[in-house]
Amino acid sequence: MNSTAQQEETTANRSAMLEARIAKRSIAATDIVALELAPVVGHSLPAFSAGAHIDVEVAPNLVRQYSLCNDPSETHRYVIGVLRDPNSRGGSTAVHERLVEGQVIRIGVPRNLFALVPAQRSLLFAGGIGVTPLLSMAERLARDAACFELHYCSRSPERTAFGARIRASSFAEQVHFHHDDGPPAQRLDLPAVLPAPDAGIHLYVCGPRGFIDFVCGQARALGWPAAQIHVEHFSAPAAAVDDDAAFEVQIASSGQTIAVAPGQSVVAALRAHGVIVPVACEQGVCGTCLTRVVGGQPAHRDQYLTEEEKLQNDQFLPCCSRARSPRLVLDL
Question: What is the DSSP letter of 108?
């Protein structure tokens, strides 16, 4: 998808919200709650593809993204799993403490930045709660009788989300569990399970940043091309501060110029002057705030745009990114 089409799709999707009822709330593992969401109106929800996520309004004016982990062929429900994060910015705490069975909430239509691609073989590596989009992928691949395996790393069996479901699934024999506190023989031996690159094999990785860096680093060392390594980040890395100087943004439609102070996000600076850009993750991961740039050079800090898209300098994520030039002109 080209940059213009991607931005138009993002803008359309982020404005589409619907109501869903929490049909079931259950414990998926220690500190992990599972929510089954059902349609309030009609008998089905918008279709989704394996690897997709939805926006969830977990509290008034607080939206977070969660991967769908049920079978993509299902249209009568969405299932998400949410880890209680001790460093929560409010999202996971709200899910665990405020959302209850029977409650009606607002959700977004599914978006997919982590889609499966046709391959002779798919290798899935999950770290902790990162299993959620990969579980949806496993459901799809198993239904298609595709060749795949899932390596699922977690701290312990008690903290392995959806473990019972996986063991009872049709693809149970294709899943390998690896626990930090288990016997050494069952721990992930990445050099043993990660093959040399092959045009017919694609790699999918999701989990904590350290886990992603470990798996992808090994793959790159073996010569895997970037096009065959697919990653889903749940959070952004700590931002660099070497380009954290003050700059200006100009609104193309009105000519209004707004100063952005060091340490202040573009979104916050705009909001202070009555210019509202929709945001969700506020970490440059989800793409909700994607904004077209018609002048100046952004300093990209996001995990959403590809490296090729960043080089075009025609769009950026104002929730986290800044400017290399004294001024950015935004298509607002």
Answer: E
- Tokens 């690897």 belong to which residue? 51
Predicted model pTM:
0.78
Neighbour tally for 44: CB within 10 Å: 11
Structure confidence by residue, pLDDT tens digits, 125-171: 999 999 999 999 999 999 999 999 999 999 999 999 999 999 999 99
Q: Are 281 and 313 in contact (CB under 8 A)?
A: no
| CATH 3.40.50.80 domain position(s) in the chain | 121-232
Percent of the chain with pLDDT over 90: 74
The CATH topology of domain 121-232 is Rossmann fold (3.40.50)
Q: Which CATH superfamily is domain 247-330 in?
A: Beta-grasp domain (3.10.20.30)
Contact 70, 129 (CB under 8 A): no
Which tokens belong to 80? 């998400």
The vertex-136 CA angle with 133 and 140, nearest 5°, equals 140
List, by residue range, all CATH 2.40.30.10 domains of the chain.
Answer: 17-108
Which helix (H) or strand (E) segment holds residue 15: the answer is helix 3-15
